[in-house]
Amino acid sequence: MPAQLLDGNTLSKKLRAEITARAAIVTAKGVRPGLAVIVIGDNPASQVYVRNKVKACEDVGFYSVLERYPAELGEDELLARIALLNADPKIHGILVQLPLPDHIATERVLEAIAPEKDVDGFHIANAGALMVGHPEFKPCTPYGCMKMLESIDYPIRGARAVIVGASNIVGKPMAMLLLQAGATVTICNSKTRDLAHHTKDADILVVATGKPKMISGDMVKNGSVVIDVGINRLPDGKLCGDVDFDAAKYIAGWITPVPGGVGPMTITMLLMNTLEAAEKAVKK
User: Fold this and answer.
1) Annotation marks residue 120 as catalytic
2) Distance between alpha carbon 269 and the CA centroid of its chain, in Å?
3) CA separation for the pair 191, 279 (Å, rounded)
4) Which of 151, 184, 212, 248 is most buried, most CB within 10 Å of its CB?
5) Given a cut of 80, is residue 284 above it in pLDDT?
6) What does pTM read for this prediction?
7) pLDDT(33) > 80
8) Of these residues, 53, 138, 221, 249, which one is catalytic?
């Protein structure tokens, strides 16, 4: 039998209904959740992501600000704008869409965002807090993956989890969240020897490499949970993940589709983080 789908669209709708209700409560107390999104340049993928994020804000009743700048924008100008947003009480979350142009230092920009408004969870203070188990905000994609596991009541404690991809955005924080939930975690990277040896041992397999269909069906453990974070466009225009879905779905017990899996959850958890930032503002 084919694997059961971990449907990110369905779970997102459920969570966004909760977010909408909670946003109405804090708005009634005089604090409407606010998200500022900054996009620099005209990267087509970034434009799509940004449109989706802004629309999602509107759908749940948030206040949103979208700021577009040309690719030539100077780093100091960007930092000055972030400083103003840090001081703006109407803004509870600040998101700078990556990647940035080469002349702008990504780390400097991310660290300029106030940690209490770092709803992407990329600030070094939040990364360090995640390491010790007390993050201000969980990075959105790993947070969404954990919510998907929670939605099927998967027994993470004691499970073997393998993450393919060691980025600061997905791989490393995903490992921390799974470790804190009690899993035995292995992180694989481009230098890992005999990758299949590790992936075939995984009860939970999370793949985030940006390489289309690099995980074949014979690299998946029977009955495992496969979470495919990748989204790649093939020459024919179709989208696919980092896992060969058509092969893996007959081996895994649960699997995320691409599109419609992790992607919607990432945006939903961005909304959740922004909401939580606004709720903390109410308590101050």
Assistant:
1) yes
2) 7
3) 43
4) 248
5) no
6) 0.95
7) yes
8) 53
